Amino acid sequence: MNESEHAQGASFDLDAIECDVLVVGGGINGCGIARDLAGRGYSVVLCEQDDLAAHTSSASTKLIHGGLRYLEYREFSLVRKALAEREVLLKSAPHIMWPLRFVMPHDPAMRPAWMIRLGLFLYDHLARREVLPGSHGVDLRQHPAGVPLKPQYRRGFVYSDGWVDDARLVVLNALDARERGARIFTGARCVQARRGADGWNCTLETAGHASRAVRARALVNAAGPWAESFLRGAARPAHGESLATRSLRLVQGSHIVVPRLFAHDHAYIFQNPDQRIIFAIPYQQDFTLIGTTDLELDGGDPRAGRITPGEIDYLCEQASRYFARPVTPADVVWTYSGVRPLLDDASGNASAVTRDYFLERHTDAAPLLSVWGGKITTFRKLAEDAADAIGQMLRDPRPAWTEGAALAGGDLRTWLDEAGRRALPADQFERFVVELQRRHPWLDATLARRWARAYGTRVALLLGDAAGPQDLGAEVAPDVFERELRYLCDEEWARTGEDVLWRRSKLGLRLSEAQRAQVAAWMQAHASAPSLSDAA
Known about the structure:
The chain is globular. The protein is about 30% helix and about 25% strand. The longest helix is centred in the first third of the chain and has 17 residues, at about 75-90. The strands form three sheets. Strands 3, 4, 5, 6, 11, 12, 13, 14, 15 and 16 form a ten-stranded mixed β-sheet that branches. The protein starts with a helix and ends in a 10-residue tail after the last helix. By secondary structure, the protein is α+β, with helices and mostly antiparallel strands.
């Protein structure tokens, strides 16, 4: 069957895929688990019904953080775990993750200064720090972070966390999983999973109705917002009983992006009268990201989550309590919303629902592991725990390996001299950019930095034998060359303009509607349809 026949929706029958583990879900947890399992030598298949990171995992606040506010809910174990993971992650991919300093203006009406100092002391000391500096007080009348704020905010506190390109983090895990032998199928939904005595008989199906059988010794349900419905539907036993024993609370978190509100490189954390917090973060050089909200959803398709006018008003109002120049809905240039699948712990307040994860083992007959909850900062530890559990259920445990391992493109030291290899991760990145420009002096400096940020050492694969600008192909839109689009199609599962402009990058922010349409048209003409063939 050729691609045109496949694109028209013809079905085909290929031999069933045999594997140790089928992972359902191509978000950060699913891709992290697939990577960990593949690195332990298990044969792994991952299926994702849409694009990698198409939903929750590309709609976070883009932070690698312990969660300072969770201390108020006495989530000490979660915060400690997340704080320890911050530095592990920052070292694993310094091109897409880097330290970020946060400023908390003090409002005595919110929390007393002694409480904030105590919280920051715990935040500094609950886990070991090697990369990130500690917290301290600051006079906002003298500090650059005080300039854009209202004059009544005279003192504040500064502490450390990290920034992450969340959608690229998912792709890097998928790339690493594939390089270690995993097979990744996007645009492929698991429509049936039937448990047998010694394994799972599953069916994957694309939107074009192509299907393929998968026989797996174990099944991992990492479907995120769909984890509960997957157990009640596709994985329901033939006699009709549900495998779902837990309930999810689906909480929509929305963000707005506005033109840059401040010139310095710190972020802000603002305390609100409703006891929630929001962040204002430097974003894509020319913008400020503000979020997030907590809006509980009742039923419906998680794909349908969209920011409401009330959420926009809320974020503008809370930011305007602190910034001297008011933020208005008219300033908003982009919004995004994600549905967080939080494990229902009977908390009345959506903001108080635990962000910790729970791995549920179903050990009757063939192993099933369901992933409930979680946050992006703890994905690596979650994946490690999940792989440990799968090994135990298969009675074939294998050692963990991801702590200290670089993600795809993340070992910048391979491009650096001895002094560079000893530098902190953020400094390694700057040295890496210099080395990239030295090796390719013809490459535009802005483009070189963007590609270094996105691809790390995999930029060598993107560039290949390119010897000058003429080898980048046509410029489909400003700063978007055919060579990069082909790389994204061939290597990173990109199939649509949205995949390229809003997940593999955020170039959509800088392009006009007509320019975005040009990229979408190129992708439609050149990208292949989702496939379940062995070459996928």
